[in-house]
Amino acid sequence: MSKKKKNRSGKAAVEARKRRILGDTIRYKCLECGIEEDIPRGVVEMFDALDDEGDLTVPPRFDCEECGGLMEPIEYTGVHGVEYKIADKKEDDEKGDWLF
Ligand SMILES: [Zn+2]
Prior knowledge:
- The protein has 100 residues and is an alpha+beta fold.
- The protein has one domain.
- Helices cover 22% and strands 23% of the residues.
- It has helices at residues 11-22, 41-50, and strands at 25-30, 36-40, 62-63, 70-73, 75-77, 83-85.
- The strands form 2 sheets. Strands 2-1-4-3 form a 4-stranded antiparallel β-sheet. Strands 5-6 form a two-stranded antiparallel ribbon.
- It is elongated.
- Zinc ion (ZN) binds at residues 30, 32-33, 35, 64, 66-67, 69.
């Protein structure tokens, strides 16, 4: 019986290496144009922590570089333990479409 070789050059290995360099990232989505961007968790959590006095039900948000729209995390659990999930629709944003 021969040992099965471990394939270390596959796509998974590349992803793993990237993850080690970038660290954990949060996937953000623009509510206007729908573009998605990975933002390092450290950056998101920094903004989240700074927002201590604010509304905890609202996640840290960023401006879209493409259209200037609002970017929100698709799925993110904040430093205050609040779980955010983007609703799969564009309207009614003002009312806060978060599923807890
Ligand atoms: Zn946009």
